[in-house]
Amino acid sequence: MNAQQLETLVHQEIPITKALGIHIAELTQQSIRVTAPFETNKNIHNTAFAGSIYTVGTIAGWSLVSSIAANNQLKGSVVLAKADIQYKKPINGDLIAECALDDHQLFDKFVASFKRKKRARINLSIQLREDGVTKAILNANFALVS
Amino acid sequence: MNAQQLETLVHQEIPITKALGIHIAELTQQSIRVTAPFETNKNIHNTAFAGSIYTVGTIAGWSLVSSIAANNQLKGSVVLAKADIQYKKPINGDLIAECALDDHQLFDKFVASFKRKKRARINLSIQLREDGVTKAILNANFALVS
Questions:
Q1: Disulfide check for B120: which of A65, B65, B114, B124 has CB 3.0–4.6 Å away?
Q2: Can you tell me whether residue B109 is helix, strand or coil?
Q3: Rounded CA separation A19/B33 (Å)
Q4: Taking the model in full, what pTM does it have?
């Protein structure tokens, strides 16, 4: 699955993501970058809206897990179980969420667990960045269920 | 400030809330109920989208704190500092977020702290309910800053 196919899937599965302007900017086997335009997601103080920041972050996580599932022929639904977010600094431009699965063991365990139990969980740390600075951090726990 | 005035304020301050269909259904001095339509916020599995659930919850909290500030002549901006959410069960209909400030001491402390320091924080527990069942719980920490 490439970035364009994944974006089409996201817009189909979760229609409100079109209104938010969610865009899959980059996708590899184990990393993703998702963006959304500032104008659509700003508040009156001219900073990004907290709800949009969270949503762009969760879409990055959901999309990465969906892509991993598709690439490994794991047939299931990706569900967000719980999450926490810390807003460290205001975001003054486009929203950019990045997530990379650096831990190969975590990844292998996730795939093996699903193949064995038809159910697996994974914790992702998603960074909301602007000009190289982390403005918010989202920790999200996803389940893949058959 | 009544529910209609607060809804107008929310739509002005955070434009994307109009696209989400955010509606202030009920407002008292210390409680709020915020809704959003299912059709706009559903995913392809016919359940409410996790990002929308979070956003409706944070809008309930943001709106209640903004209303308390206005009613107590506290002039400042309401900012979400951090939050965590637990999705317990799928939501199959309209999104309904409820929050009530049951603890009077917490409320008094918040108002007194802002009057003294021009800055105050408050933790809110926001329930996402359907047919009387709590489907998700959002804990959100808001700051009021002058």
A1: B114
A2: helix
A3: 24
A4: 0.96
Contacts of A49 in chain B (CB under 8 A): 14, 16
For residue B94, give the 3-state DSSP assignment.
coil
Q: Give tens-digit pLDDT for A71-113.
A: 999 999 999 999 999 999 999 999 999 999 988 888 889 999 9
B77 vs A: CB within 8 A: yes
Which tokens is B81 given? 């500092």
If one counts the domains in chain A, the total is 1
Per-residue pLDDT tens for B131-141?
999 999 999 99
Q: What is the CATH number of the domain that holds B68?
A: 3.10.129.10
Structure tokens at B101: 């400030």
**Strands B31-36 and B95-100: what pairing?**
antiparallel
Instruction: Tell whether A12 lies on the interface with B, counting CB pairs under 8 A.
Output: yes
Angle at A86 between CA B79 and CA A68, to 5 degrees: 135
